[in-house]
Amino acid sequence: MAELLVVPALLAYGEAAIAYAGELRGPGLAGRLATWGVRLGWLAQTALLGTQAASADGFPWGTWAGSLNLFVWLVVSAYLIWGCKPRYRLLGLAVMPVAAILLALAWAGGGTGLAEGDGSGLVLAAHVGLMLAGFAGLTLAAGMAALYLWQERRLKRHERGVLRVRVPPLDALDRLAARTVLAALVMLALGIGVGASTFERGDFDAAMGVTFVILGVYASLLVLRYGGRRGRRAALLNLVGFALVAIVLPLTHFAQ
Amino acid sequence: MKLTLVGVSHHTAPLELRERVALDPAAAAELAASLGSETIVLSTCNRTELYLVRADHAEEVAVRTLTQLAGDRSDELSSVLYRLRDEAAALHILRVAAGLDSLVPGEGEILGQVRAAYEQGVTGPFLDRLCRQALHVGRRVRIETGIAESPASVPAAGAALAQQVFEELRGKRVLLIGAGKMSELTARNLISRGASIAAVANRTLEHARELAGRLKTRPLDLSELGSELAEVDVVVASTSAPGTILRKADVAAALPARRGRQLLLVDLAVPRDLDPAINELEGCFLYDIDDLEAVVAETITGRRSEAARAEKLVAAEADRFREWQASLEVVPTIASLRALVEEIRDSELARAGSRLSERERRQVESVTSQILAKFLHLPTIRMKEAAAAADGVVYADVVRHLFGLEEERRSQ
Q1: ipTM higher than 0.95?
Q2: Same domain as A145, residue A71
Q3: pTM above 0.90, yes or no
Q4: B336 and B285 assigned to the same domain
């Protein structure tokens, strides 16, 4: 049953990724098809996660592939908050190809089947869930930062088609990325707090160290932005932070 | 009744001829009233058109009216007038309302002008239906295609770029440098999207005062530009000054106080007012007249490609109008047939009335009414379909003959 749900989710995400590329040529049908692809894919993946949760004893996404499956769902969920608005559709161009590839990896790694669960308690489930949600938020914020830099470059270069492709306005991308980072940091802090309740001396490892560096980078981004360092510099710092996320995620979850 | 269109437009006549027959809204309304029932007069800067619904002589009336307006150039005008009838005339007004006949495809003003002509015209069932369909398709084209999304002029492109940077222009402040026509046009475009004008700066303070008065803002001396740059979000420059008015260093000096807020600078002047190197500053986007014209050229190309989609919508609407027009030929026959069967039912009910109780009478009335409605449903639909396929007259004749509707009418 679970395996049957991953195929439509993957197909729908893939369709959305391709349709978003079509939206680049001009707004219209491709954008609407992409949005429906995201919605249907998200529904299929939600059903998949629900099936996995119902059949497992404990936390069913403890493996690297399982975590990846949950992570993709969180990223797409966060994207859906804005992605349905026509003006923000092209954000999907940065998000959906990544989501489709990561879900395919999770499938290949066996993270989309019915697992018995690791018998872990609520605390570990909450810790992993919150950390993944935080990283998902940071991924989305990185997508916005990338889109910001692309759109800024087009405006600076006076590209003729700058008004033809409907990209979110610079101001909105900057603001939304900052808000997403703030929400993600809150979740990461909560996740770390929950995890700390089971922390024992000697548990500290490199992954935790990198996680704290990530927190520091993103917190400084918000502080600098408050001090007037917005726009391009904030977007670049956001991408630097995300590069660390891309390192710490495999370290904390995928390589175990 | 036939629909006739006679007109002149930018496709057929130069401006000096079009202006001879151009009418302001009041004069157009007066002319429509003087021509009598079912007339509308559509007069814009690109066209003057008369739509008349008459049994006959409509074309002669319209041509005579327009050539009289042209005065001593009536012969010249007569040779460039176009004359369309029925379906072609209906399709034409649908295309006009959709902006497909305009110089810039999809321009927005024409829809309001068609609405004004409709409201000020003398309309009956025919033109009323046609105008409502024209307005409907005009709205559909603008909603369902991207034909009107992109700016079609340099001032509009400047405003659209501001929205590309800031999204919401409500609360954004604009500094105008120069008090000329282009400044005002761009300012009004930005105001229509929610921006407010912070100040008007000009070499001649008197001119700045005049424009500031019209825009309900304050005048500014050019020497005060530096302090203003820290506060505003958009700068529009279009003076006739021979040299640069704002240098990179001036803008750079204002950046710390801006705390990272983006600044869009639109330079409409030739020679340029703003130092091109300003574009190198972080958070500053400078567009000159060439950049904006390139953007407009690109968006007009986009409009032309969207026009193909719009033509399909217009063609479908024209088909609907043609079907409705054709159905008019069979409507009297359908009405007569329904009247005949109702009459028969009423007389039979009256005869049986004395033998039925009140409750029974109501039941019989209801049952017979339903039987007749079901019986007449299919013939009605078929006759309307036949009318749309141009067989309507034949079908109507057959029905009138079979049910004796002509004799019925004569006996009345």
Answers
A1: no
A2: no
A3: no
A4: no
